[in-house]
Design a protein that fits this description.
- The two termini are 38 Å apart.
- Helix 6 runs antiparallel to helix 10 and helix 7 packs antiparallel against helix 8.
- The chain has eleven helices and two strands.
- A two-stranded antiparallel ribbon has the order 1-2.
- By secondary structure, the chain is mainly alpha-helical.
- The protein folds into two domains: 64 residues, Winged helix-like DNA-binding domain superfamily/Winged helix DNA-binding domain (Arc Repressor Mutant, subunit A, Orthogonal Bundle); 146 residues, Four Helix Bundle (Hemerythrin (Met), subunit A).
């Protein structure tokens, strides 16, 4: 498929940044010059720049030009947000992905977490045991897995988990509440106990089973 003029400009700028021809803090070529160099309209170049600004790759300063932001390992993950939010991923697909992502997160958590991370997990599970509010339980569940991601000290896992957290909270809350609460507290307690014992193998197993159980329940409902 042929690139549109805007896509041509976007890909050109992105490639320059990825190849470090334009580095953090550096001003990129002006819209006028880019339009001439690429043989596209200035409007197309401006649209490409605005898209890169929205993704936090560029910073546009009025009267000065566009500058490259500090790029880290999570910057391009922002592209997942519009894709997944608009409808690119179902709840089942998110759970399928989590069945692998959460297992890696818990392994890295045990290897890299602080005592504060573990205390927060204990507090979350204790609140889960005591609450009867569906909404509060939902948020505690999200907090539990997000805390594990944070304790992993892996920026990519943290970013992806935050994206999924926001999507589940804003889009799939009803599907979440359709699933049984019967075993959820017990499953989170099993994961926590394995973490506190620093038993990576058991923690990974319980995490995998926890997500797969939710996945199986959801699939049964859709039959």
């Amino acid at each position: 498929m042929n690139e549109t003029p805007m896509e041509k400009a976007y890909n050109y700028i992105e490639k320059k940044i990825i190849n470090k021809e334009w580095t953090a803090g550096e001003k990129i070529t002006s819209e006028v010059r880019l339009a001439v160099e690429l043989g596209v309209s200035r409007v197309s170049v401006r649209s490409a720049i605005e898209k890169l600004v929205a993704l936090d790759i560029l910073n546009k300063i009025k009267g000065s030009g566009s500058y490259v932001n500090e790029i880290n390992n999570t910057t391009h993950l922002n592209k997942l947000i519009p894709f997944m939010t608009i409808g690119g991923a179902s709840y089942i697909e998110i759970l399928e992905y989590r069945s692998y992502m959460d297992v890696l997160s818990v392994e890295l958590f045990i290897e890299n977490c602080t005592n504060d991370n573990k205390i927060k997990l204990e507090e979350i599970v204790e609140k889960m045991k005591n609450t009867r509010e569906r909404e509060e339980f939902f948020l505690l569940d999200m907090d539990f897995h997000h805390e594990i991601a944070k304790g992993s000290r892996n920026n990519i896992l943290i970013k992806i988990n935050q994206i999924l957290y926001n999507i589940l909270k804003n889009r799939y809350k009803d599907e979440y509440h359709r699933l049984t609460y019967e075993k959820r507290v017990e499953e989170h307690k099993e994961i926590l106990d394995a973490i506190l014992e620093k038993n990576i193998k058991t923690a990974k197993l319980y995490t995998k089973l926890h997500v797969l159980r939710s996945l199986e329940d959801l699939r049964k409902m859709e039959l």
